[in-house]
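FORM 12-B: Structure-to-Sequence Request
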């Protein structure tokens, strides 16, 4: 192939039938999401550290807030790095940083040193999540891109129950002084295995290579993928007609400043609000639901039971999303789920019966996690041009993280002054505002090609 001829990787990827190559790529992305559970063990580690006198409520608050700050900078800076060095290299880089910070953190001599390591863990994890969710959209066909992303989210969200189960088994057997260190070393070992798999098996995104003008490399990887598909299916792929028969146009390069202009600015606003709603609603319910139960007059024992029953809605919600995400228009699904959450949340806040609280709580969490899957794994990662995919997604994720830092203070104020109804009025208001923004500013991406979605710059702004 002429090195100056466009390889048209988008059209070639979109025509591929479902086969082993997509499942292999999915497996490597899903495994990465599953084993990167340094954030999921935060509360479990703090419990052990409190037992040995390393932390108290104030120190734990610093530990948690600086973790979130690290994830903020990871999403923001990681997106810039990922668009610069590519999807494969950024995947390996952020996994390596994550592993190193967990191993060093496991041997921390004191709490201050551990908190510093925790910031680095947060940075690596924030960058890794952006790389995996946004980058994965470039590898799969447009017709079922949402389904693949939702499946990855479903697998990744099992990290919470898995690490909790591991902690439950090792806590009686290992003293607290060593227990928390082991909890960091387990995901570090699993992530090391992940790094070796990615290094050996994970290809660079042909779409990213094409966006960088590296046509020969893009074509080489694309040809290898096509050969694997033909071997897997036993059928010859249909030919495609190349857009450019001769010398191709220069690929569009997008500067960071262009994210704050025109159509891209609209997408930054859209993506930011979609993730603000996700963070405010999801983390409020995860962190405050037991306290909300107590405020409603439910005793501690029943509160724990109700919280556990409600949280079973999380994996069920994501599981349902995997089946419907590519059947419902994106704008309708996102806005519809937010309206349902707002209405159901308000009704839920008025309940006093344990039976009704448990039933409505289960359905509320189910809808919330359907939206979490939609927002973080599918919609926000796919609304960007390939040349700025990780920077755009990273910026929106960073803004969403800020809302997650601010929301607990608002929730605490409302719970103290207006009660449970005030809290759910806040969640409902954020949900309804975001639903309106999706309907007004949202773009329809279901089944649209990555190239069509990314065609946003007028000719005068193309570099």
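FORM 12-B RESPONSE
SEQUENCE OUT:
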């Amino acid at each position: 192939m002429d090195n100056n001829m466009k390889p048209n990787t988008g059209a070639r990827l979109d025509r591929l039938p479902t086969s082993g190559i997509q499942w292999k790529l999915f497996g490597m992305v899903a495994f990465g999401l599953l084993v990167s559970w340094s954030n999921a063990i935060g509360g479990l580690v703090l419990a052990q550290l409190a037992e040995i006198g390393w932390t108290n409520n104030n120190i734990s608050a610093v530990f948690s807030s600086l973790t979130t700050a690290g994830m903020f900078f990871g999403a923001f800076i990681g997106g810039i790095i990922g668009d610069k060095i590519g999807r494969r290299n950024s995947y390996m880089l952020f996994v390596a940083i994550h592993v190193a910070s967990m191993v060093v953190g496991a041997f921390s001599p004191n709490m201050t040193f551990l908190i510093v390591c925790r910031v680095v863990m947060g940075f690596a994890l924030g960058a890794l999540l952006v790389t995996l969710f946004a980058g994965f959209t470039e590898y799969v066909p447009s017709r079922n891109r949402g389904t693949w992303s939702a499946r990855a989210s479903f697998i990744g969200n099992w990290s919470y129950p898995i690490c909790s189960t591991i902690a439950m088994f090792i806590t009686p057997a290992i003293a607290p002084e060593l227990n928390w260190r082991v909890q960091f070393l387990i995901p570090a070992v699993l992530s090391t295995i992940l790094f070796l798999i990615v290094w050996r098996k994970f290809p660079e995104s042909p779409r990213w290579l094409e966006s960088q003008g590296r046509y020969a490399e893009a074509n080489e990887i694309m040809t290898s993928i096509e050969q694997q598909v033909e071997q897997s299916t036993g059928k010859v792929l249909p030919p495609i007609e190349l857009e450019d028969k001769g010398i191709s146009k220069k690929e569009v390069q997008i500067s960071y400043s262009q994210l704050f202009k025109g159509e891209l600015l609209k997408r930054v606003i859209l993506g930011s609000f979609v993730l603000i709603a996700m963070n405010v609603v999801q983390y409020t319910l995860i962190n405050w639901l037991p306290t909300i139960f107590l405020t409603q007059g439910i005793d501690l024992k029943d509160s724990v039971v109700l919280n556990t029953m409600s949280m079973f809605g999380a994996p069920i919600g994501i599981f349902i999303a995997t089946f419907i995400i590519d059947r419902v228009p994106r704008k309708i699904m996102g806005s519809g789920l937010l309206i349902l959450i707002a209405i159901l949340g308000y009704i839920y806040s008025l309940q006093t019966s344990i039976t009704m609280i448990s039933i409505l709580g289960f359905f509320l969490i189910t809808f919330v996690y359907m939206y979490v899957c939609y927002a973080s794994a599918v919609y926000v990662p796919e609304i960007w041009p390939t040349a700025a995919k990780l920077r755009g997604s990273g910026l929106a994720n960073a803004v969403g993280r800020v809302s997650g830092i601010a929301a607990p203070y608002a929730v605490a104020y409302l719970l103290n002054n207006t009660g449970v109804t005030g809290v759910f009025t806040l969640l409902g208001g954020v949900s309804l505002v975001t639903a309106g923004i999706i309907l007004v500013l949202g773009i329809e991406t279901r089944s649209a090609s990555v190239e069509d979605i990314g065609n946003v710059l007028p000719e005068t702004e193309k570099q």
